[in-house]
Specification:
By secondary structure, this protein is mainly alpha-helical. The protein contains 23 helices and 6 strands. The protein folds into 3 domains: 95 residues, no CATH class; 86 residues, no CATH class; 160 residues, no CATH class.
Length: 465
């Protein structure tokens, strides 16, 4: 286990568990054995930095307000949701706790909740963050009792003699067992009865309302008893299929969409026998030899958030108007706190279509160089100048006028260890290069390091990690 990793393998580790690695940090950790690098990732993420916005301005009862005041309150609530989005995106770009935030991002999509209730959204996000490297069972219980989940899946309306099946269905189908994996419609109906009476008070604390609970006997997944909601959660965790389903999703997120069945079985057993310790599962993956195999490197399409954060982080990009970050999330089809539905974002190839690909390929030049790629004037012919003018004109789109970003190129270049062309290519791009990319790169001049890096980040290969 004292093996050492190549630079490419270290970069692979840091992209999958975070948002890339800086040149200076790479210089530091390449001298460490693999186990120590992984220990360092966990150590840096041992702390928890929760999102924290002041919602005092929203503490008004709509019933006491005029129509105009209710409209204004709604605007304030929407603004707080946007503020929450920006705060988390900036935390992703600035935090040292990258592994915790990366797994918070994973579970943000696993427990996909879409609300315009900022206090509940922030609470759920912090619940996930506080459990993201700890225990999945504890997270599941706490998430299930959160105001956000109780609101989103209508469990507040789940009462005896009139059960609401929304949460009972999704907790089996999406949060634990997976679709059509060992449960029946009867199991869902019986589980819904067990979750009756779950609610929260004005302070946002969970309460169990006995008058609303069905105390009758229920049969769920072959077990019979006077079950409450907590019992259903425990029953679902006792099912090994839950461990397999969660392991499979984490494998897809961290390793590859093509799942090795032997690896999955080993990981599932480890996760289940460790009572759903997320750290144990992650270490089993990251400390393996197969995680660093070439077939896993540079094969994952970056999510929009991974792309934005991976671009902003190394250059410490400052945006004149942070609302542009919301604009980019919308255009790239991933807005934090607003998943498309309870199943979350599909990921993978679904991130790419004709419109998002064009934006993705232009994003580096727009963000890091005001929408312009500098060109050497080695060819000053009239035809060349006309082509350049046409190119510049095309780049001046509405998108580029919106994005007013200031990257810290001075700091980035000062810390950059690599200077020659091949080293820069290896550092910026993770996947094996296509013949087309090789041809494009062969024509590029690495003399202007800044421009060369922007050109590399404008290639399709930069979309992969």
């Amino acid at each position: 286990m004292n093996s050492f990793l190549t630079d490419k393998q270290i970069q692979h580790l840091y992209w999958r568990t975070g948002f890339g690695i800086s040149s200076s940090e790479l210089q530091l950790v390449r001298t460490l054995p693999k186990k120590e690098i992984i220990d360092r990732l966990f150590s840096e993420s041992s702390r928890k930095t929760n999102l924290s916005l002041d919602f005092g301005v929203l503490e008004k009862d709509p019933r006491d307000l005029s129509r105009e005041e209710r409209i204004e309150l709604r605007k304030l609530r929407n603004q707080k949701m946007l503020d929450l989005n920006i705060q988390w995106l900036q935390q992703l770009a600035e935090t040292k706790q990258v592994l915790r935030e990366k797994m918070t991002l994973f579970f943000h999509n696993h427990f996909a909740v879409r609300l315009k209730t900022p206090r509940a959204a922030q609470h759920l996000n912090n619940v996930i963050r506080n459990n993201a490297l700890e225990n999945f069972g504890d997270m599941l219980m706490e998430v299930s009792k959160s105001p956000a989940m109780l609101l989103f899946l209508n469990n507040r309306q789940n009462r005896k003699n009139n059960p609401n099946e929304n949460f009972a269905r999704e907790v089996m189908e999406l949060f634990t067992l997976g679709r059509d994996n060992g449960y029946t419609e009867t199991d869902i109906k019986e589980a819904a009865r067990a979750f009756t009476g779950w609610n929260f008070n004005k302070q946002g604390s969970f309460v169990f309302r006995q008058k609303h609970h069905d105390f009758g006997s229920k049969t769920i997944l072959g077990r019979t008893g006077n079950f409450k909601g907590e019992d259903v959660i425990k029953i679902l965790l006792e099912e090994k299929q839950t461990a397999k389903y969660i392991t499979q999703k984490i494998y897809t997120y961290l390793v590859n969409e093509k799942i090795d069945s032997d690896h999955l079985e080993t990981l599932t057993n480890r996760f289940y026998n460790a009572s759903y310790s997320i750290e144990v599962l992650l270490r089993e993956i990251l400390e393996s030899t197969w995680f660093y195999n070439p077939e896993h490197i540079g094969t994952k399409i970056k999510s929009p958030i991974e792309l934005l954060v991976g671009l902003s982080k190394p250059f410490q990009v400052h945006y004149k108007n942070t609302k542009v970050l919301l604009y980019l999330q919308r255009k790239l089809n991933q807005v934090l706190f607003f998943p498309p539905n309870v199943a979350g974002w599909k990921g993978g190839k679904s991130w790419i279509d004709n419109s998002t690909l064009m934006l993705r390929l232009k994003l580096a030049s727009v963000t890091l160089n005001n929408g312009v790629i500098e060109m050497n004037n080695s060819d000053d012919s009239e035809v060349s100048m006309m082509m350049k003018q046409k190119f510049y004109k095309k780049m001046k789109s509405q998108m580029e006028r919106k994005i007013k970003a200031t990257p810290n190129w001075e700091l980035f270049l000062a810390s950059l260890e690599f200077k020659n062309k091949q080293q820069l290519i290896d550092f910026i791009l993770q996947p094996k290069l296509s013949e087309g990319a090789k041809n494009v790169i062969s024509e590029l001049d690495a003399g202007n390091t800044k421009n060369f890096i922007i050109e590399l980040m404008s290639l399709p290969e930069y979309q992969l990690c």
